[in-house]
From TrEMBL:
<feature type="binding site">
    <location>
        <position position="192"/>
    </location>
    <ligand>
        <name>substrate</name>
    </ligand>
</feature>
<dbReference type="InterPro" id="IPR029062">
    <property type="entry name" value="Class_I_gatase-like"/>
</dbReference>
<protein>
    <recommendedName>
        <fullName>Homoserine O-acetyltransferase</fullName>
        <ecNumber>2.3.1.31</ecNumber>
    </recommendedName>
</protein>
<dbReference type="GO" id="GO:0005737">
    <property type="term" value="C:cytoplasm"/>
</dbReference>
<feature type="binding site">
    <location>
        <position position="163"/>
    </location>
    <ligand>
        <name>substrate</name>
    </ligand>
</feature>
<dbReference type="InterPro" id="IPR005697">
    <property type="entry name" value="HST_MetA"/>
</dbReference>
<dbReference type="GO" id="GO:0008899">
    <property type="term" value="F:homoserine O-succinyltransferase activity"/>
</dbReference>
<dbReference type="Pfam" id="PF04204">
    <property type="entry name" value="HTS"/>
</dbReference>
<comment type="function">
    <text>Transfers an acetyl group from acetyl-CoA to L-homoserine, forming acetyl-L-homoserine.</text>
</comment>
<keyword id="KW-0486">Methionine biosynthesis</keyword>
<feature type="site" description="Important for acyl-CoA specificity">
    <location>
        <position position="111"/>
    </location>
</feature>
<comment type="pathway">
    <text>Amino-acid biosynthesis; L-methionine biosynthesis via de novo pathway; O-acetyl-L-homoserine from L-homoserine: step 1/1.</text>
</comment>
<feature type="site" description="Important for substrate specificity">
    <location>
        <position position="192"/>
    </location>
</feature>
<keyword id="KW-0963">Cytoplasm</keyword>
<keyword id="KW-0808">Transferase</keyword>
<keyword id="KW-0028">Amino-acid biosynthesis</keyword>
<comment type="similarity">
    <text>Belongs to the MetA family.</text>
</comment>
Length: 306
């Protein structure tokens, strides 16, 4: 089934080229069903790449999804044109009286700053507070997961001795959770972060449960007991070459980064990486949309959050 996005969005042509069903606005308006409304708060500097990655995952489900893109007004993006933002993105003032079935809050390259030092922190707090009454299910990714746990539950983040970058093996702690239905007992996922949240801090909160972890890099999936909030500490949306591009970027900056773990064959950055996380990543987004958004959201969007 299709994903419904504006015809002129750069992701449209890319997804159609991958044989992904993208529905035009005209066709969507003439179907007598209510699509799921999903809002993406895109905090990543590589906005077009992140849009495309997330929409690729959201599109591969038997559901019609209408996607709105949200940006922070208190931060000026420098890696994307103002025209792209004006054309395709909305601000919180545009949507604060609307309701959504799902919200995705992305990561952001601000991990080494204290939360309160981030220039859009107050605006992000307003959005996270608003999500409790206007969004049925919210998914927080990477730094967005750390920010969500800090804001909603007071859980601190900690700086890692070295960056967790690479592809790591994970195991399920809640294998019967619908969120990981279809997952292998051992599976691979991508991490790219400089900070972490301690497992014992999450366990100390009765309203949270841990679904999946890695013995190498710790937490991967955490959710609220009421299934309204989800926190994933990796990047299941990443493309095959995303870690490669991050590594090459840091090399050019003179940061002297370590080679991402278990990513390049024989740890040779000149060789093309293999994607061993794609199927699990797709299952994650599909299961979240199906079991925690579509199956439980009210048909009347005005009742979301009640």
């Amino acid at each position: 089934m299709p994903i419904r996005i504006p015809d002129a969005l750069p992701a449209t042509e890319i997804l159609e080229g991958e044989n992904i069903f993208v529905m035009t606005e005209f066709r969507a308006l003439h179907q007598d069903i209510r699509p799921l409304r999903v809002l993406i708060l895109n905090l990543m500097p590589t906005k077009i790449a992140t849009e495309t990655q997330l929409m690729r995952k959201l599109s591969n489900t038997p559901l019609q999804i209408q996607v709105d893109l949200l940006r922070t007004k208190s931060h000026e993006a420098t890696h994307v044109s103002a025209g792209h933002l004006e054309t395709f993105y909305r601000t919180f003032e545009d949507i604060e009286n609307e309701h959504y079935d799902g919200l995705i809050i992305t990561g952001a390259p601000v991990e080494l700053m204290e939360f309160e030092e981030v220039d859009y922190w107050e605006e992000l707090c307003r959005i996270m507070d608003w999500s409790s009454t206007h969004v049925h299910s919210t998914l927080h990714i990477c730094w967005g997961a750390q920010a969500g746990l800090y804001y909603h539950y007071g859980i601190q983040k900690y700086r890692l001795p070295k960056k967790a970058s690479g592809v790591f093996e994970h195991r399920l702690l809640k294998p019967k959770s619908p969120l990981v239905r279809g997952f292998d007992d051992r599976f691979y996922a991508v991490h790219s972060r400089n900070t972490d949240v301690k497992i014992e801090d999450v366990k100390a909160v009765d309203d949270l449960e841990i679904v999946a972890v890695s013995d190498e890099v710790g937490l991967y999936i955490v959710k609220s007991v009421d299934s309204r909030r989800f926190f994933v500490f990796g990047h299941p949306e990443y493309d095959t070459d995303t870690l490669k591009l991050e590594y090459e970027r840091d090399v050019k900056r003179g940061i002297n980064p370590e080679i991402p773990t278990n990513y390049f064959p024989d740890d040779d950055p000149t060789r093309a990486p293999l994607n061993v996380w794609r199927s699990q990543a797709q299952l994650f987004y599909t299961n979240w949309l199906n079991y925690y958004v579509y199956q439980t959201t009210p048909y009347d969007l005005e009742k979301v959050g009640e």
